[in-house]
TrEMBL record:
Main enzyme class: ligase
Species annotation: Equus caballus (Horse)
Subcellular location(s) per record: Mitochondrion matrix; Mitochondrion membrane
Protein name (Swiss-Prot/TrEMBL): Aspartate--tRNA ligase, mitochondrial
Pfam families listed in its UniProt record: GAD, tRNA-synt_2, tRNA_anti-codon
Role of this protein: Catalyzes the attachment of aspartate to tRNA(Asp) in a two-step reaction: aspartate is first activated by ATP to form Asp-AMP and then transferred to the acceptor end of tRNA(Asp).
Amino acid sequence: MFCWLNRLYRGLSSPTGRTTQLIWGSLSRSLVLSSRRRIPEFSSFVARTNTCGELRSSHLGQEVTLFGWIQYRRQNTFLVLRDFHGLIQLVIPQDESAASVKKILCEAPVESVVRVSGTVISRPPGQENPKMPTGEIEIKVKTAELLNSCKKLPFEIKDFVKKTEALRLQYRYLDLRSFQMQYNLRLRSQMVMKMREYLCNLHGFVDIETPTLFKKTPGGAKEFVVPSREPGKFYSLPQSPQQFKQLLMVGGLDRYFQVARCYRDEGSRPDRQPEFTQIDIEMSFVDQTGIQSLIEGLLQYSWPRDKDPVVVPFPSMTFAEALATYGTDKPDTRFGMKIVDISDVFRNTEVRFLQDVLSKPKGTVKAIRIPEGAKYLKRKDIESIRKVAADHFNQEVLPVFLKASRHWNSPVAEFILEKQSLELIRLMELQEEDVILLTAGEHRKACSLLGKLRLECADLLEARGVVLRDPALFSFLWVVDFPLFLPKEENPGELESAHHPFTAPHPSDIQLLYTEPEKVRSQHYDLVLNGSEIGGGSIRIHDAELQRYILATLLKEDVKLLSHLLQALDYGAPPHGGIALGLDRLICLVTGAPSIRDVIAFPKSFRGYDLMSNAPDSIPPEELKPYHIRVSWPADSEAEKSSLDHPHHPES
Ligand code: ASP
């Protein structure tokens, strides 16, 4: 283990040295000074002299007192002690006079907590361990105290990655002892600290807490409901502080930010949590480029120095281009394999189904190129790709190989004329071993399918050893010019907001609101990192009339529910805009963690349970009375009730 903690702290703060000055002249001066602190004082206020991980040859001869957990023991001679900072080897005294110390250190089970005092000495020549940052030295123990003994563990701390995630979540407090969790949570804390510094100290933002007991409001994600003591009345947990931050602008706060907890009852998805954290921002008198520059600066400033630096400004792409070339509004721009429209190649084709599609008004033929696909993709891969297309998109996809001998499952290959083949080679820049995946259909549908297959193929190629996405690369992208509305999924005849109903239309499209609202572009921007959406925001509507029209007439929402906001807009609301960054996802990408659960101290499981405490849990009927609530048990209620008496979760 490299000396990660020092590196983390050094990397994340300015290299101007530690300050011990306690009395500061002014608030701003003190904030600047504290931010310059290099390595924190880890042993202040406690009885230890040092942390385990910080000791080096420079400490030789020093008498030290350490506290930590027993990592392992070798032949009753050596013991390795661990704290959050690292590992240190202790030499267990063997002489008669130290028999009691020896007994404690030899008998205490692994993961017991001990206090030891002793002298820092050099390891004998040849016994140094270059892999350990403390590997040149060891502690000659003089006294030891067992502070708490550890029972047999459900898993070994150092092997935590090999355990099932359910077990790790059940014993989260043990899992947190692992190096990886310590690193992730500390890096998160450091980045948030730097963000606060940047926003509050450098740019005058005010950190303001907004309520988490709110009410149900229209639009957006499904909310969690909280009963109140008034019959039939409920609070809702906010899906974001959106309305409050806009009201803060009306209140003249000018620049707001919050590390905000948000709640969405959206069911499980791998990169979602029912409660999650946003870096939530709102500013008055700002436009889209202002918010974008702010975020670029914020990320650059808070970015860990041991990662490749963030290069600004970030590139930008319109929503339409993202969809047409990557099949998604969150393109992973670390690699090519872009979607190419090859409709023109097939205008006079003999292939029946291509003819059919192209004869329709929105019909297109599109393809992606899999570099060296003939070499890396197996027949079964092609079959599974075609199955994904059929099952999830109800679409046909055809592999086309350049080499005639390799046209497995490519019924069209023989119908592609020489001329078309040459045109395809030119348009798609094809090489000998490449494969193209071809599909035909309506523009949006064909793009979405190929966008999905592009990612599937990238995974397949990488599983075969091809490096497509450099793990050290952070590829940021702004996606802009979204439509203001999208057709509702469940009822395409109706409109819903592409972002949220408070997003302002593009100034040049305002007139279209009254004629062809589906064509209106918005002032909404998303920030994408390596193919994940890590933030989104917009310039807001600050005109009450326009807001009312969009809510009532276009979105058919009940405006009474938002009368507080509409009223506020009427009292001199300044023009304003903002953004929210998804902190969990961002930290997950920065640390390279496999899941967002790995950057949250106490996350919910995939299905939304807390496997450690068994939340959500049942409440006795008498405790529900004050809320005027009764559980209406589903038909197979007996099974339900008994599972509550003996809670078990599918994941545990
Ligand atoms: N509140 C929005 C969201 O959570 C972000 C924003 O528009 O600022 O997506």
